[in-house]
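Board notes (copied after class):
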Amino acid sequence: MELFVTGTDTNVGKTVVSAWLMLHLGACYWKPVQTGTMEGMDASLIRTLTDCEPGDILPSVYELPEPLSPHEAARRAGVDISMDKFVPPEVERPLIVEGAGGVMVPLNDHAFMIDLMDALNYSVVLVCRSSLGTINHTLLSLEALKSRDIPVACIVMNGPSLPHNRDALEEYGGVRVLAEIPPLDPLNKQALLAVQPEHDLEQFFMWPA
């Protein structure tokens, strides 16, 4: 089973949610496009948060220095991002795939992150903030995904619990919230393990027994 973790924006907590999913599912991790390598790698944070084995983190297809949208980071690096290069890795365990930026982030002159999701055909986990503005951003992202018939498995919310925003997202978005991850201090493996999903994961994702 494979899950594609995307977000309503950059810095909404996709990497933290990816680590959370890895810990609760015993999964591997793949970030096809990594930008901003001059500031660090998301894989490094994943390794810190999960204490996973080196082989559990699969190499990115593109690693680009500038902390920018993939299309611009690639342009500045003199690289052309080709959709043909995104070959899904073969693993014997669940796979967590983390996108770069949000749903409509450009990859090149013609393709967007949503096109990669469509090509991979994995169920999507949409990460959003809990705070003011999340309803608009999340519903717009859901609308874009549903317009392409991309399956959305669930929403994971990051930030202080705001029940009215959660209720609105489930009602108007028609997608269940799998978990709400509060601000964690310290942010570490133990703290992530302590945040329990609100549904049985094997049944929720219809994982094979």
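Comment from the instructor: The chain has a mean pLDDT of 94. The CA atoms of residues 105 and 192 lie 28 Å apart.
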